[in-house]
Structure formats: C-alpha cells, structure tokens
Amino acid sequence: MEKIKIALLGLGTVGSGVHAILEEKQNLLQQRFHNKNDREVSIKIAKILIRDPAKYHNVDPSLLTTDYQEILDDDSIRVVVEAIGGEKPAVDYMIRAMERKKHVVSANKLAIAKFGEPLVKASKKNNMEFLYEAAVAGTIPILRTIKDSLVANEITKMSGIINGTTNFILSKMTHEQSSYKDALVKAQELGFAEADPGSDVNGDDALYKIAILSRLAFGTWMDLNTIDCKGITEVTPKQIEDAQKRGKVIKFLARSEKVDGKIIASVSPEEIDRNHPLAHVDGAMNAVYLHCDNAGELLFQGAGAGSRPTASAVVSDLFAVVERL
Ligand SMILES: NC(=O)c1ccc[n+]([C@@H]2O[C@H](COP(=O)([O-])OP(=O)(O)OC[C@H]3O[C@@H](n4cnc5c(N)ncnc54)[C@H](OP(=O)(O)O)[C@@H]3O)[C@@H](O)[C@H]2O)c1
C-alpha cells in the first residue's frame, strides 16, 4: 500500500469535514482508487495546521502544529489542503507550498478570486496542481464540469444562486413573510449565516464566486471592481410581495456573459419569472444555470456550503491530485 501524506491547513468547518471524510471513507476511497488506477493507495493526514491546539479535542494531538514551516520542510508531504480562509496568510502559504513542490487544494474563494493569477502562475512554474472545486457552489461539481465535460462548448452566458445564506434569507422572506432581520437571525441560529454575515449579504462572497466561474468559462481573470455588486440588505417584504403579485420572485443572482469580447458580470437581487429554472431553488441551496452552444441549457443544484458538502468537493480534488502522483 502506497501512503500519500497530506497536510491540512485549518480544522474548522471545512477542515474538520475533510478530516472526518478521510477517516470514515478511507476504505471506499482506496477501493475506488484501485478500481480506477490499479494502484493501492491510502491518503493520510500527516499534519494539521491550527492556531490554538487547546481547541481541538477530537484529533490525534500529534498531528497538530502551529508551525507552518514544519509542514513546508517535510518533503514526505505531497499535498497541502488549504482550509484557513481569507487572504493572509493563506495566499502566501499556498504559493510557498507549490514552491516546495507540494500540490495545493483550496476552498478559499476570496484568495482565488483576488489572487488567482499569482496562484496559477506558481502552480505552472512549479509544475504543481492547484485545484479549488469547493470554492464555488460547495458540493456542486461545477468547475470540473466546465473545464472537462463542457470542453466542446462555448458557454454563452451563466447565472446562478451561489450564496446559500442570502438564498435562505430571501426564501424565508418570500414563503414565510419574514422580515429581513428575522430571516437573518433564523439563518444564524441554523448555522446558515456567520455571526458577521457581511460578505454574504453585501454580495462579496457571490462576487468572488462569479469571478472564478467567469475565469473558467471565458478564460480571463476578472478585475473584481468591474463587477456590479449590490447586496440584499435593502430588499423589503413589500418588494417581494409586489413581485409575487406580478408572477415574479426576487432571487439573489450572479450573472456573467461575454459581450463583444468583454465579460459583463453582476451580483444583485433580481425579479425573475416564477417559471424560471432558478425560481424554485430555495433555502440554503445553490444552483448554477449554464447556456452552452452545443450542450444547450444545463442546471446544477446542490448544497452550496456546510462541512460535509464542501469537504466532499475538497476530497474529490484531493483524489484527482493523488491520481496524478
Ligand atoms: N464553511 C463553509 O461552508 C465553506 C464553504 C465553501 C468554502 N468555504 C471556504 O473554506 C475556507 C475555510 O472556511 P471554514 O468555514 O472552514 O473556516 P473556519 O471554520 O473559520 O475554520 C478556519 C480554520 O483555520 C484555522 N486558521 C485560521 N487562520 C489560521 C492561521 N493563520 N494559521 C493557522 N490556522 C488558521 C482556524 O484555526 P483556529 O480556530 O485555531 O484559529 C480554523 O481551524 C474559507 O476560505 C471559506 O471561504 C467554506
């Protein structure tokens, strides 16, 4: 049995899901790896980077470290899974990992939307994989679908509900006549919104994701300042009710299309017809709707966040990286 050692950066919502899946599904993953590649391989977490070891009781304490250099210096670690989030130190950690010949898997949409160019450059320069399926629409395998399964298509435009928190809030306002404030509190109680929901409700989170989708669909990294962005904080129950009377629903949509060679993207609450394919995507669900020249219209739906759904996408990237080792 070939043992592939990996390091996990962060053991929060996503990191702990990755840790749990790798423990629980070890046999299944080994079997699937064998069936696909005719090799006996097991993926082992060799180190986990966190800041405060006292917080983590359910993991082997010998795996925990607060010193990233220890991971970089360990040449037996082949892959780094970044689940810290944010810009600093995550971007620097990922680039340094690739410079030390470690492949990188990440769920960090902010880092990828803002620093995708240097990250991809580091991956090419060092001939390392850099995969980030979990960064957009959680468990929905949309990036790999665009990259691989739709390779024979021009994507003419795309739209999506790619932030679960805001979809939950608008769904609650639409179907239960909640106020924005009550719906937000409920989302926080149920774990669909952070204590600080800023980047969800002001649109930044969806903006990062539509920038990443646009890069894959249209081939260029976007200047984030060119994306029109309006959050949901000003949507009122009256606007929702008035829209309903006209056979419409208000959804928080991210859109992108190429017009005369230029990518036009936006994130904002919009009225759509109640028969639109995205109109019935409710609660914390995400969906991505693609228009392709050959494949036609495609709709993908699934959990956009959460520990296991997100970790499922991370582990599939990890599996893909290990297949190439
Ligand atoms: N949560 C989701 O459903 C979801 C879905 C899709 C994508 N993502 C993305 O996944 C990433 C992780 O999100 P999360 O929700 O798992 O975050 P989280 O629950 O806040 O966990 C972050 C983890 O990283 C550790 N950490 C943070 N800064 C660190 C540093 N400087 N050095 C070492 N460890 C550090 C934290 O350790 P301490 O607790 O010890 O500080 C914690 O274990 C983010 O990029 C997020 O956008 C999340």
Helices, strands, pairings?
Layout (H helix, E strand, L loop, with lengths): L1 E8 L3 H12 L1 H12 L3 E9 L14 E2 L2 H5 L4 E6 L7 H10 L3 E4 L2 H17 L4 E2 L10 H8 L5 E7 L2 H12 L4 H10 L8 H4 L2 H15 L9 E2 L7 H9 L2 E12 L2 E12 L11 E8 L3 E8 L3 H17 L2
Helix pairs in contact: 1-12, 4-5, 5-10, 7-8
Would you mind describing this structure in some detail?
The protein has 325 residues and is of the alpha/beta class. The chain has 2 domains: 153 residues, Rossmann fold; 161 residues, Dihydrodipicolinate Reductase, domain 2. Helices cover 40% and strands 25% of the residues. It contains 12 helices and 12 strands. The strands form 2 sheets. Strands 3-2-1-4-5-6 form a 6-stranded parallel beta sheet, with helices on both faces. The chain has a 6-stranded mixed beta sheet with strand order 8-10-9-7-11-12. The model has no long low-confidence stretch (mean pLDDT 97). The structure holds NADP nicotinamide-adenine-dinucleotide phosphate. NADP nicotinamide-adenine-dinucleotide phosphate binds next to α1. The site of NADP nicotinamide-adenine-dinucleotide phosphate has 24 residues, from α1.
